[in-house]
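Hey, resending since the last one bounced:
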Amino acid sequence: MGEDAKAADYAGAVLKRGDANAEQQYAAWLITAQVRESGQEFGLAERAWRQALGLIDSGRLGAEQKADRSRVRHQLATSVFHQGEQAASAGKFEQAVAHFRRVGTVLPDSEIAVNARFDAANTLLKAGRWQSAVNELQWFRRHYPDHE
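The structure tokens again:
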């Protein structure tokens, strides 16, 4: 509700407590991830999404939280993708390409992974890295032969 700093403080307090149960930790990581995303701190958001996903995969949460797994993975992939965009905007082309390629490790064969690999190729083109861009585009065509 527009109180990101307060939400982050409360979530941080929960995570510092030694007696917070898995559901409380999970909620705190979700809040942290959302606050970091809204502040465009996508590396920190990625860390928080990974923590939330780790709790889901730990088996310590209830069915309701386990049902969030695909949504959390999508948010994690989105955070990685945004890191690529930020790096590309800053002229950090190698870093951008690395982030774009990582999206597929988080959410393989998803639309965001496809877009990320295409953006990796475009980033290499913008950087004037012609052979690397050709290699990336060939990889793209091999893995997504029917993509528009």
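The first helix runs from residue 4 to 16.

Sorry for the duplicate.
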